[in-house]
From TrEMBL:
Organism: Streptomyces olivoverticillatus
Highest taxon, organism lineage: Bacteria
Segments of this protein annotated with the region Disordered: 22-46
Protein name: Acetyltransferase
Basic residues biased stretches: 36-46
Length: 46
């Protein structure tokens, strides 16, 4: 299995996965713009 760091051109692919358990949020980037960040949403134990 090959693992690599995400790059800017990968963002459209990540957006395609956004509906599959990923929660998207916007955070201010270093240049004052906004960058997409995501985290896996963990179901709470019952």
């Amino acid at each position: 299995m090959i693992v690599r760091l995400a790059q800017e051109q990968d963002v459209p692919g990540f957006l395609a996965l956004a509906g599959q358990g990923e929660h998207w949020a916007t955070a201010p980037g270093p240049e004052g713009g906004s960058r997409q960040k995501y985290r896996r949403v963990q179901p709470r134990p019952q």
